[in-house]
Amino acid sequence: MSTFADIPRAIRAGIVVVDPGSGAPQRVIVMQFNPDSLERSIQPQAAGGTADAGGSGTDGDRNEALRLKGPAEEQWKFTAEIDSTDQLDVAAPDGIHPQLAALEMLVQPTSAQLRESIELSKRGTIEVAPIEMPLTLFTWGSKRIMPVRLTEFSVNEQAFDVNLNPIRASLSIGMKILTVSDLPVGHRGADLYLAHLAMKEELAGRA
């Protein structure tokens, strides 16, 4: 029987949760199906001000017209699908609850972190620092590995088993690419962004 060994296996997109200190992966979430399309918006961070109503700017604006004050802000949006019926050889007593929960925890602090914050408040701590989440990377092939923050996450559960566990869902996911302007100096995510930008520069050189 032929196994079609000469057909390359498709690379799947995914999300990797990384410890920002050690760089060790804590969780890898692989997309069951790669999204059919990606919507990307890029907003340049211009240094100059806006022009007046007549279309002319100040001398200062003219001097700054070609200057950038930092990396462009980039947003990604896509729709992902999860379907337990496509994994007939894998037992799924909880449906796709585990996959949904793994994604939802990307935007949720843990119960232990919340309890710690509550305890600090009870002890009279004047200012409780916001909870820091692990570093999240989005991978789309070998040429796009970026630090991101999820900005949008909505779930449309479309089918259920007899125990009302969801077995098929469509996910709308939005994310912001984190740049050196968003992260502290020396942060591992800042280094990963610079590597991502260097890859863009290399690809642009091939055009």
Describe it.
This protein is α+β, with helices and mostly antiparallel strands and 207 residues long. It has one domain (14-33, 70-84, 94-206). The protein is built from four helices and seven strands, in the order E-E-E-H-E-H-H-E-E-E-H. It has helices at 59-63, 97-104, 111-122, 188-206, and strands at residues 14-18, 25-30, 39-46, 68-83, 135-139, 145-160, 166-177. The chain has a seven-stranded antiparallel β-sheet with strand order 2-1-5-6-7-4-3. A hairpin with a 6-residue loop joins strand 1 (14-18) and strand 2 (25-30). It starts with 13 loop residues before the first strand and ends with a helix. 13% of the residues are buried.
Order of helical and strand elements: EEEHEHHEEEH
How much is the radius of gyration in Å? 22 Å
**Distance N to C terminus:** 43 Å
Classify the helix fraction into a percent range: 10-25%
Describe the biggest sheet? 7 strands, antiparallel
Question: Which regions contain 5 or more consecutive residues with pLDDT less than 50?
Answer: none
Spatial shape: globular
Query: Helix/strand-derived class?
Result: alpha+beta
Mean pLDDT: 86
Helix count equals: 4
Query: How many E-type strands?
Result: 7
Side by side, the strands of the main sheet go: 2-1-5-6-7-4-3
When the domains are counted, the total is 1
| Amount of beta strand | 25-35%
Brief overview, please?
The protein is an alpha+beta fold. The protein has 4 helices and 7 strands, in the order βββαβααβββα.
For the structure shown, list the relevant keywords:
alpha+beta; 207 residues; 21% helix
